[in-house]
Write a structure and sequence with these properties.
Strand content: 25-35%
Order of helices and strands: HEEEEEEE
Radius of gyration: 25 Å
Amino acid sequence: MALIIALVLLVIMTLLGLSAMRTVSLEERMTGHTYDRSLSFQSTEAALREAESWAEANKPTPAAGAACNSAGVCGAPAATDTSRWTDSSFSGWKTATAVVSGSNSIRPQYFIEYLGNTFPCVPNDLSQSSNCKRYRITARSNAGSDRASVMLQSIYATE
């Protein structure tokens, strides 16, 4: 009888050990995915800031509908055009400065769309001049082939 009870307790302890190992393995994978997502988000945000700084320094004004140049600057798209960031054949992405974390090195990308210069300089005061430039900046990154992908957009205003 003692042998049977010992064997039953041994089976129960083995099942508990296997369950604990599965839980730890799942939590480790979740932590890795969270790290990848955070790294992708931070690199995408860095690319967005880099593009905003470039737009502020250069204030490009390409014609509406113009193709993207080597700096990643494009003319404003027509309202009926497919959004560039959803178009898999779009090749106007500019590679930003690499973001390195340990052995991971991520090369985010961005492009800048010139939206025009007919926007109010002070949005809350329509009596002010309406000749300020606006840019839509789209940035993306991928921490690896099977890792987290992040895409961010901002509307950047210059005078």
